[in-house]
User: Fold this.
Amino acid sequence: MNPIANRYTELVGIDHPIVQEGLGPFRTPKLAAAVSNAGGLGTVSMPGMPTDLDAGARTFREHIEECAALTDRPFAVNIPVGVDNNGVVLPFTDIYIRTVLDARRVDQSLAAQLTVLTTSAGFPGDYIGMIKDAGLIHQHKVGSTRHAVKAAEAGVDVIIAAGFEMGGHAPSKAVHSYVLLPNVTEAVDVPVLLTGGVRDARGLASALAMGADGVAMGTRFIASSANSDWHPTYIQAILDAKEGDDVAFDGVYGPCRGLKNAASLKLLNHQEDGTGEVIDAVELTRWKIESMQRAQTTGDVTDGLVLTGQVAAAIDDIIDIAHFVPNMAAGAAEILRGLASALPDTEHAFS
Amino acid sequence: MNPIANRYTELVGIDHPIVQEGLGPFRTPKLAAAVSNAGGLGTVSMPGMPTDLDAGARTFREHIEECAALTDRPFAVNIPVGVDNNGVVLPFTDIYIRTVLDARRVDQSLAAQLTVLTTSAGFPGDYIGMIKDAGLIHQHKVGSTRHAVKAAEAGVDVIIAAGFEMGGHAPSKAVHSYVLLPNVTEAVDVPVLLTGGVRDARGLASALAMGADGVAMGTRFIASSANSDWHPTYIQAILDAKEGDDVAFDGVYGPCRGLKNAASLKLLNHQEDGTGEVIDAVELTRWKIESMQRAQTTGDVTDGLVLTGQVAAAIDDIIDIAHFVPNMAAGAAEILRGLASALPDTEHAFS
Assistant:
């Protein structure tokens, strides 16, 4: 039934160690519910970084409730940790984390489902205790072994090792999945998930061979029939992408990966040759977020930022998540069993 | 005895599907012989791109003969395919390939050992037929799926999929191991090796799970006790490297990965802000090669280019190749067997 059950699936109470990545600043409740219903772990992403934080918090809560209404399985939320120049956590992060804690406090049924909180970007610091005390499982996403060790020592329950080939906001240093993952699994004792470059059963089997307990995927799930919230043109841009069509440009907190187009090249040139107009950093951040959301909602994939992982190059079909997730787990089990049984020594053992 | 024997080890006649990468423009006969003696496939690299091509060819032949004297196992040579602006193969490539064919023609004993020719960088075109006719196994290294398909269709026997995290001369497009490898294994039927990011048994097991038949490693083998040809300071720089210490700069044929230092940052800045002195391209290429060789021979790791893969960050010991290679193969088998036997269904099957 659950072909790759392990300590991670047991901890989180899911069938398959396959997680849908945070995909902020987008609308993700349907996608998250579809992944959770399929036996993986869906993730409701933060809806944006609005000026009106109360409105943002209301939207986030609506997304959480919409997801909860669509599944009776566990699901997660993802909240990036933004910090100012003094290392102080930004208001949007604080209010979103508190929104989750409040929502669970007043609704026991929701608390039974929304059992995982994923943080990404900056170090969650004091929030680690707060998340733990609320009874949540705390996953934290890192792009370096140093950050993995720091987070695990501070009490984070699950590390998501994020290779630089991931989509959206990428780690500040370009450490790639094949290098990062074994470094991280060697350095920490808590369960580790790989994100960045995974798209199918082979990616899962391969991550397990590196010592991971599971995988998280963003781009693969965006191109799914469950994802009716996103503009079809955005999804088509993922299907059309070829090797070399992606680029890491200057994002909101740090590097950001998406497709090469007018919008990303504008940011890339701005970074590289210094000839771009001087734009106020706050205004630039607002433009980036607005541009990301425009691509997703209106399908403007030329002048809007299209965030995808490098793996978009290999994605050319729209999956049905309900079948895909269990098949991916079964496929990974089959690969591992097949490889083990093909080993010369194993053959001798059976002969 | 040979825990991961497969179609690749059978094709090449080695014990373990573990290849030592081409490491030009350096001196590699001892290293290559050590890897071959350990049951993997060592590779003698081209010694440089000298102005005096006859002298270069003599050096290359000396390196090949030195390797042959140190092992009675199969070994490979690696020759990058350089092309000019009109797509014509450069003289150094032509003369090095002919040197190998000549050496084998006049020495049957050498021909029985030097059974594999690896090409890298540009497309080997008409040389494919020439290499095949000489009875050599032809391996070709690619950084994209398109190039893998083209090479396999043209008759290349083995594809080496080179993720951008590799050291030295990297593919022109930044496609990383976790994305590239499954794309390539899906696209071609010939044996595929992964290079870029691999350092131990987990990397091999992981590559096999992605559908590869083996792995190639450069940086891991440089830091070995067999490698007395390289300056200890160079090897120490690999041991000291941390995550984020590597950089892809403008190399000889395209991007090149090495450690961040005065030499690589000079090239990086030259690329990025356009403020570097205008240097003649031929002169610049000569400086780069001289700088690479100086680092390796004199240990000048600050003003010399130190080529390493991103995996240098994870390498902190000097291995004994004779033990490392068979242990890596045995370890990969153990990982695959362990993962398969831990699968819930397998347990049921045995209960």
